[in-house]
Amino acid sequence: MIKKLVRETCHGFEPYIAGKPIETIKRELGLKTVIKMASNENPLGASVKAMKAVKENIEKIFFYPDSNSYLLKQALSKRYRQPAGNIFTAAGGDEIIELIAKVFFNPEDEIVYSKHSFIRYGMAAKLMGSKAVVVPMKKCFTHDLKEMIKACGPKTKAVFITNPNNPTGTYNTKAELAQFLKNLPENKFGMKPIVILDEAYFEYAKLEKDYPDGLTFLKDNPNLIVFRTFSKIYGLAGLRVGYGFSSGAIVDHIERIRPPFNVNILAQAAAVAAIDDTAQVIKSQKLVKAEKKFLYKEFAKLKVPFLKSAGNFILFNCAPLKGKEFFVSMLKEGIITRSMDEYDLCDWVRMTVGLHKENVLFIKKLKKIIRS
Ligand SMILES: *Cc1c(COP(=O)(O)O)cnc(C)c1O
Q1: What is this structure's pTM?
Q2: Ligand 1 site-directed mutation target among 113, 118, 171, 203, most atoms within 8 Å of CB
Q3: Has residue 309 got a pLDDT over 90?
Q4: Which of 77, 119, 249, 251 has CB atoms 3.0–4.6 Å from 84's, for a disulfide?
């Protein structure tokens, strides 16, 4: 009955399948120790500076947060050399995707994105009733930017690019991205579509050869929105903070529709402290770089096909097992991974790079599963 009242565009949504929390698995399977390698969190944890900031602000939680995230925007402005008026903040990159959709996506619009890219883009398009135009990837599992340009027509309102992409870990180079932004055709509004560049793994990917910093394209592309998050390398996933950069006009419209208190008081304080903790970032980069090398070598030894990743996660092929079966076997061994059915990668699994001892354990269990 209630379904009759639900907006038509909200029909047919499946609940989002999130990485399972450790406590849930311990409870469900009666396991003592469980490792989570499912959601690309930072295994080193949050920055000590951020945790200190949370403690210092705990007594202020009866106040509403600063609606404007003034201090956080100032810190981001200083750190990334962008005017504060070109920055917006939100409860994670996830809310950023939704805010952009709410401001710009009409039912008659087409939204272009790549197959096997972050599923929240498709969900945002669907929520607004817009048409999703999904472009196949190249054989090497990277965004096919040339084909994405071809997919843009008069109705194209926006294009999503994930760089590096989750779950494949692949990235597009600086030259490719520059070419893409330049060649993007105008739509029926006489403008280039809005390009949403998702750089959730920027701090890991910047170590890769020819990886572009999206911010360098902002000056020449007022249609570009670049966003990042404190959930990944900064280790603040539980607090929900993300931030975006764009032209003043785009930021202004996002600001008008966002919930006034979307970034909570502890999240703002922690994020400001985390930005200055470069030691934590460098430590995390080094760990992930060394551990990816270790894991690649082990995958190769076991002849398990995998994709080299610019992020802190690796996608590997578990055929002849289905991803879901592998996931269940790994869960019984006390390790939470992510199967990839909703990304149309049914015999692939994504694992988050952990601490060395966790990765060693993961490989030990992987051997056991593929040999049984
Ligand atoms: C994790 C992630 C995000 C955003 O995560 P939040 O926790 O909502 O900030 C956005 N895009 C991609 C590709 C991600 O993997």
Answers
A1: 0.96
A2: 118
A3: yes
A4: 77
Polymer length of the chain: 372
pLDDT above 90 (res 158): yes
337-368 burial code (b ≥16 CB/10 A, e <16): bbbbeebebebbbbbbbbeeebbebbbebbee
Best of 229, 262, 315, 338 to mutate for ligand 1, by most ligand atoms within 8 A of CB? 229
**Residue 162 near ligand 1, beta carbon < 6 Å:** yes
Residue 1: the pLDDT is 86
Contact 306, 224 (CB under 8 A): no
Ligand 1 atom closest to the CA of 229, numbered from 1: 9
Q: What is the pLDDT of residues 252-261, one digit of tens each?
A: 999 999 999 9
Nearest protein CA to atom 14 of ligand 1, as residue: 200
Residue 25 pLDDT class (50, 70, 90 cuts):
confident
- Comparing 16 with 176, the larger pLDDT belongs to 176
Backbone angles phi, psi at 200, to 5 degrees: -60, -25
Q: Using CB atoms within 10 A of its CB, is residue 262 exposed (0-12), middle (13-18) or buried (19+)?
A: buried
Distances in Å between the Cα of 134 and the Cα atoms of 113, 145, 152, 161, 193 are 5, 12, 11, 12, 15
How far is it, in rounded angstroms, from Cα 201 to Cα 312? Answer: 8
The protein residue with its alpha carbon nearest to ligand 1, atom 12, reads: 200
Q: What whole-number distance in Å separates Cα of residue 14 and Cα of residue 3?
A: 14
Whether residue 118 has its Cβ less than 6 Å from ligand 1? yes
Element (H, E) at 73: helix 70-80
The Cα 98–Cα 105 span in angstroms is 10
Average pLDDT of the residues in 280-298: 98
**Per residue in 207-216, pLDDT tens?**
999 999 999 9
**What is residue 159's predicted lDDT score, i.e. its pLDDT?**
98
